[in-house]
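W.,

You were right to be curious about this one. When I first looked at the sequence I had no strong expectations either way, so I just let the prediction run and decided to look at it fresh. Below is the sequence, 409 residues in total, followed by the output.
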Amino acid sequence: MNHNEFVTVKAKTCAVKVGNIVIGGDAKIAIQSMTDTVTSNIKDTVAQIKLLIDSGAEIVRITVDNDSAAAAVPAIKDSLMQEEMYAKIPLVGCFHYNGHILLHKFHECAAALDKYRINPGNIGIKGKRDKNFEEILTIARKFNKPIRIGVNGGSLEQELLSELIEQNTNNNLSIEQIKREAIVKSALFSAQKAIAYGMQENQIILSAKVSNLPDVVWVYRQLSKYSKHPLHIGLTEAGSGLNGAVKTAAALGILLHHGIGDTIRVSTTSHDRTEEVKIAKMILQALDIRSFAPSVTSCPGCGRTSSSAFQILNFQVNEYIVDRMEEWKRLYGDEKISKLKIAVMGCIVNGPGESKLADIGISMPGNNEEDLAVVFVKGMKKAVLRKTEDYSIYQQFITILEDFVASLQ
């Protein structure tokens, strides 16, 4: 785990083995994603799983909601096992309502999955809830599979909620406060039941997701306070586009800052399913918890900058890094490249200072400044660039950048 001064000491949780990776304990915070294909469409599901893995997902969840989906799981797993980079990624089954039936009926599905996600809010009502829950746990123990008890605000146990509302007669809590308490109690009670039914503490992961930022922070703080189970954190139904990304980043940023969270999932609505994985990587890198790609520092531009030239250079450098990153990692090592810091700055005010702080940086001339760009490497002036008939400042900077990256080996 990469601790830093910004992030509070990581909350202590037990380590849970999920397939080939570990969640909790001292393990790195893992990124999860979920397919949106019809699981019985094996070709499309496998293709999307691979796409998510290629974008950086380290655990992938699929819907298992009927017989055809459950029957398809072994074939999906077998297809992934044909290639090493996909074989090592855990496959999680997401069950609602009928998980006890499907896992009992399709043992090959139960064996192929690396973890079962269970929602205590819709596994059954009254006496059937405990019976159905125990049936799933019996299968989990048989195949030595961990579980995630995933409580959702939108599908909360109604009996528990009603009970807490009745108990609140003289406490003057709002319905929102009661729901938050019910979410926490549902997760904790379910974990206690799972242990009573024979599951080990290091086989249980908890999550408690709602769509309201203050609520999700409060709920996870309570779970972290009263439990040592690893926490899968996220803001459910975050929304789409910039709105969903900002809400998720704010919620996860607060929790991760306080050392809460062992694995994360970004739940945004997007036409590109890989977007949620990219956002998750950006959040972890912004907090300096993990590094996935070189970070580029650039100013927003102002009246002092030659905005078009500076902005064009910034976009060009970012695109170049994306194009070259995989080759750089192969040649010079993932860790060195992922931690690389590059600055592309617009004028003399902050340009030289930020460029010196980066591993390599370029400070462009602002308005009414001499048409020169200064390059710094490891805090020292490396070169002064001027556009010529043969070479643009961008081309000259890229040559210096490539030489610097090559020196990292």
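Here's what jumped out at me. The first strand starts at residue 16 and ends at 18. And, maybe more interesting for your project: The chain has two domains: 16-287, 295-407.

Coffee later to discuss?

I.
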